[in-house]
Amino acid sequence: MVIGDGILTPSMSVLSAVNGIKIKATGLHENYTASIACLVLVGLFTLQKFGTRRVGFLFAPILLAWLFCISVVGIYNIIHWNPRVVSALSPYYVYNFFQKAGKDGWSSLGGVVLCITGAEAMFADLGHFSQLSIRIAFTVVVYPCLILAYMGEAAYLSKHKEDLQRSFYKSIPEVVFWPVFIIATLATVVASQAIISATFSIISQCRALKCFPRVKVVHTSNHIHGQIYIPEVNWFFMVLCLAVVAGYRDTDMIGNAYGLAVITVMLVTTCLMFLVIVMVWKRNILGALAFFIVFGSLELFYFSACLAKVHKGGWFPLIFSLVVLSTMCIWHYGTLKKQAYESHNRVCLDMLLSLGPNLGINRVPGIGLIYSNVATGVPPMFAHFVTNFPAYHRILIFVTLQSLTVPKVPANQRFVISRLGPPEFRLFQCVVRYGYKDQRKDSHDFESHLIETVAEFIQCGSDCSELRVLGREFSLNQLQSSPPEDVAALRLENGISTGSSKKTVRFRGVGCSKELEDLSEARESGLAYMMGSTCILASETSSYLKKFVINVVYGFMRQNCRRPATTLGVPHTSLIEVGMVYRV
Known about the structure:
- The protein is α/β, with parallel strands linked by helices.
- Helices cover 58% and strands 13% of the residues.
- The strands form three sheets. A six-stranded mixed sheet has the order 5-6-4-3-9-10, with helices on both faces.
- The longest helix has 32 residues, at 177-208.
């Protein structure tokens, strides 16, 4: 629903702002306003590639000017048209309204919910500001300005009931209409930016959890992890926003869809918060239940009113969220099946080495980098290659990538080398650690650093007894209680220099000059990358539904998402792709 909100918010905000032109040009056809809105949307999504950091300096002045304008106009309308509207702050009038309006009052909640839209995307601001600053800004600045604006609009409507459809722009004094119109249009762009950033953040997290197909994630800030840009999603959203504006052309229809998307997000968030309070925070279940009843019942009233407008445009977020949810579930299901197959069919290294003399395996000159997600043992892709083509490189390095939540990993801490099997087999395991801002496009630099690290490992010996980063000690308990990626991130986040720090390593054993000679000769012979080009198919005994999900839908997504070799910047001339069918 939040991803669908990322389409509806820009469409609704920009189109409603541009519709203000009709106040001055009453004969303007809706096609022209829709075209202007589409141009603004194209500009908005084009700016995304520059990142929030480069255009963010404009956001604060625009929003402050917008809040100042609506609060001043609100105060003017309250004083000029109906000062008694201030009494509407009393909860009595809420009860009185529903008592008199009855069912119509309940139906109007579907429109009232649009007054609180945007609150569901406030979590995206955590990528830019602290929790305290967001609370202070909303409580002290934003909320009072919004109350004054709505009260002023209500005061104007009390004297001009015929202007209900265009009450906001009609209530603006003639003298300041055009400045407020321009600021309103700019403010919608800023508001749209917030939900677009939120959408990028959610998709990035889903991708990390293996719930979304591989897409390119560009981090636009060297300091803040949350500022990202996803090109494929950005242009896809732009096309959908243009389709929504051109298809609906009516803010009422888009508003129905927008309201349902927003209130659904809020209701689901409340349900999830109940679980967080009980299971994560370990608080009293009665307190969590009170929280759920108070907020959940209020949101259910709004949700039921919005559901009544499904046939008036509210169907769009439901259909879109169903498509997105199905995509995520199928991708996650297929990925889990693929990993389970690799884990179950991985080959023990000793078994592979024992088969060497029987299969007549030859060692060809060069270095082979075998990429896989298998941390231990031999990936089935490589075993499949060896059994069909009994030859592999003189030096083999099994490479596993690890992403950390720090901007950059120092070059002297990027590679973690270990030996597989006896030294004479020349087999190594390498874990390559990347920060979210590290570039992976320079294959020559990667090769040079990797081989230098392997040479250092061979020089010092293969049995590591202690690893210590100079100037910073880590206790054994701290390392054992944290997963590997957290330990690595902890080391990097605790002030380790990226330039001058050096690893001090103590090893048992004596370095082998023969290994270094073999490594040098293999480097001169060339280096090859080996990756699996797997085809995931459902087993013959699977149901028709599973065959459709795995063979058709998941296969289509794998063929059309970014390939791992492209993401890693592997040169095509050095790439070996091993085709293999996984029957899951």
